[in-house]
What does this fold into?
Amino acid sequence: MLAPINPMVYPEPGHVDGLRVQYRGWHNYTATYLERAFTTKELHDRFEGVFFGVVGGRETDLDRLRELAQDLQRDINHLADLRQRLSLYEPPKPQNAPSTLAGRVPINVTIQGGVGQVNFAELIERIDARIQQVDRRGEAGLADALEQLGEAIKAASEAAEDQREEALDAVAVLAEVGSLPPEERGKLKGRVRGAFFVIKELVQIAPSVKKAWDAWGPTMMEHLPHLPS
It folds into this structure.
């Protein structure tokens, strides 16, 4: 992903949004891998837990590109540091290969030529778990908004499967941010805006998603900090 990022050259219209979607998909896949590949959640939580957003003012596309480059470089540095410390962590215990369950069809997601297996049902479980955390925090309105939007996306037959998967992944990002204390959400403005961008793209082609967004979008935007569009 570093190849198409030149923080010294003003990007063409729409270029940053496309790169942000690719970065978010790679970042989320890597975080999920770290969570599953080790017996401790420490590595996943550290990888997910450090973000910085530009606070105040209206950003230019060049500002957003530089922010994206910083996010990506920080993730790469984190993984490089992890590689040096791998011997400190206990390897996971071997497990029998799980049998394929009906309705749990893996989706291939291609990011810069790499293919990752993302299980649709597991993505939904991830969203549900985060929504429960939001509800337990006492923000029932936000939890309801995330749940209703997720249900609308799952039912959006007008959209291709990969579009629905990407939009659900965006809902998972919003739910993860919403599960944090309000005072910790401000540093994730860039991720929230990227998730809103993906969902709004689906709104253009799926009436059920548009209806849910019109009804619940204001609630999410009220609770979740986001950079100006």
